[in-house]
């Protein structure tokens, strides 16, 4: 299982990206925190994802428009019937690609292999 997000790039993204790649990527992802939270939510079926934060120091840019970044986020679980009320901080490494000439950034969460059913 792996979740993805496609972010449309604005007109001024590549103008900034040519001179300041890291700043352009961070600004773009910062503006997309809500869609990122929804993507990350797919990994957590019982909890609510809130307060996504980008760890700017973890940003790594590679050749070919590829890169990665670590995000931290808050997981909240509240269930009155089970008397559960907890808040945890989690992190996830996101990878992204900026295909040449594309108007879209492709962001991917971690890959979790699907488990086969146990046999008896």
Topology (SSEs and partners):
Elements: E1 4-8, H1 13-19, H2 21-31, H3 33-41, E2 48-61, E3 66-79, E4 84-97, E5 104-108
Helix pairs in contact: 1-2
Structure summarized in a few sentences:
This protein has 120 residues and is an alpha+beta fold.
Give a structural overview.
By secondary structure, the chain is of the alpha+beta class. It has one domain. It is 22% helix and 43% strand. The chain has a 5-stranded antiparallel beta sheet, with helices on one face. The mean pLDDT is 89.
Overall domain count: 1
Task: Compute the number of strand runs.
Answer: 5
Radius of gyration: 17 Å
Strand order of the biggest β-sheet: 1-5-4-3-2
Tertiary shape: globular
Helix count equals 3
What features would you highlight for this structure?
DUF4426 domain-containing protein; five-stranded antiparallel sheet; alpha+beta; single chain; globular
